[in-house]
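Hey, can you fold this?
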Amino acid sequence: MKAEDRIQPGGEEISRENGELAGSFKRAVLIFLGAAIGAQLLLAALVVLVDPFFHYHGPIPGFPYLVDNQLSQNPGMAAHMEYDSAILGSSMTVNFQTDWFRELMDLDTIKLSYSAAYPRDQANIMEILFKSPNNQGDKRIKKIFLGVDVITYMGGVEETKYPIPEYLYNDSYLDDIKYVLNKDVLLNYVLRPLADPDPTDLSDVYASWWTEEYYSETWVLHNYVSPRQEEQELAADAYLRAVEENLAVNICPFIEENPQTEFVIFFPPYSILFWNDVLKENHLEATLEEYRYIASRLNAYENVEVYFFPDREEIICDLNHYADYSHYHPRYNRYMAECFADGTNRVAKEGQPGRGIDEYLAHMRKIVEEFDFEELLLRK
């Protein structure tokens, strides 16, 4: 008799029990998988409904949105919120309050700052701004207020300060799983605001954390380290090639393609310690020439105004106005907004009355060359 023909006692019962166990296990696995998939779909639906990064729609009424992530939330705000003007730039712009722009210029303004932003960061957000419903049909964006930090215009045309989450910047929904099934998004931007509601005031979104006691000469000098002296002076045109490329690729196309929009370009007032760095690193001529080139190039457009604040001696020479060598008190954001409204510190276009860029830079040079940096640093 063959082995396979032998029948063990109770073999049929054991086989049947094993089959039932396998079937039960399979059903349990399917139920578990179904529950897991259902839970993920539910959580994804919750993220889409609230949409804390405004990727699909604007804010829903009543939800206490937390807005503190420039890289992830700026593109959605640019795409889906209502505005007619925008503030762009680095941390030099975070202390603007958009309410001021309504008060002073009757503008419904959105703030889209990126800390330490490079020109490519500005291009990325302007691409979304000008594709938004705010710039379609009869609606046009009225003004772009763009802060220019000269030190960032020396980088590559594709360089960004931080890697951007591409899935929040592109037009594809195929990679949105990184958003809708993101644990951090769910916990910190959907559930935490519900548990501890404290909605962000969009008028002063991204405002710096420094309180009044940080704006002091003592604090600034305590944290400042003067660079070592460089012996060889940088050529006056050392930065111009990179600057020209950045303007040509990341800034000028938006100015040229949107003649109905006025671009307000401004240079922020860094403290006198910034200029100590410039002297120690021996690139004063190159830095002044960079300011001259950017101002002249952009001011040549009819839909551009340029404002120059670096030579405001009463601001930059008093370190009690700063929290570090470059970040000024919010009252100077207010001051700049007032200048945008009344034209103070505007650089005259070529052939028009008023102070041209050469006059502003001559004054800047005079301040730097006559300032007693040694005496200031002895207070450290």
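Oh, and this one too while you're at it.
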Amino acid sequence: MSNDKKIVLSGIRATGNLHLGNYYGALSKFVRMQDDFDCRFFIADLHALTTHPDPKALHENVKHILAEYLAAGLDPEKNILYVQSDVPEISEMYLLMNMHAGIGELMRTASFKDKARKALGISAGPAAGEEEIEKEIIGNQSGKSVNAGLLTYPTLMAVDILIHKADFVPVGKDQEQHLELTRRFGRRFNSFYGTEYFHDPVNFNFGGQPVKVPGLDGSGKMGKSEGNCIYLIDDEKTLRKKVMRAVTDAGPTEPGSTPTEPIANLFTLMELVSEPSTVDFFKKAYADCSIRYGDMKKQLAEDILKVTLPIRERVLEIREDDDYLSRVVRRGAEQARDIAADTLRDVREIMGIRKF
């Protein structure tokens, strides 16, 4: 890796298969970046532990996401590809950084409040919910609980970034608060110990507007927990069925109508995978009220398959090659550990944890 290249870091939680949103929102862009940046991409299995996954499923998820990274075009000769738990220095620095993270600021993060509400069965609005969460956590009598790993999730994310001294961290809008906390923790560390050791990582701007890949349920974005995904591993029959079941409406009743959200979502997907002439054809059909949603969905499914089927074939091939996968993660772990060990040694020294 060239030292004069800017460092890019990103990770994906090991919680299931990657979907079209992951591909267009991140993975395809990572492939384009790998020649111009010093890229480190990891599989976040420690982060996944906050939801207490089945151990066998966790291991399979790690293996599968690694195969999807490789199948999508990430080259282990150009990038550092590693599994988070293969770098124990991360866990130690996570402990040290927690000494400078406040309980209050962690409890106020949007992701913690949302996930804590779900875990505790709280359905109240944001203002009331915050007080109820604190009451449930501090004096819980219901048998329900929120684990400390969920609370300190932003600290672990900060360590993932700071231990590499990353310059750029591509994150979506829902992760921007965590990136700001990373900068805050780094600055606090610097201020407390009178050093300029950590610098501020920033979100990576790929140019243009960020890609928001909509789901098939008529609203929101594509996401694993929403159950509205097209997975890169979906077979042809499954994918066609999902697309044909996508939410639509009764159709335009007046020429020049503005598409409703479900139809706008289908056009957004089509703009990602189809030829411009195809998109124009269906937009004109919508505008003059002659559009047939069934035909549009069939074309959309065909165009998505052109993207996903080659990736699916490579994923299935790579997953069967355990020796290759092992070589990739062993090499990645060695590279990541060398970097992490240097940072951890410096952090221990700065904090006064020194050998006699």
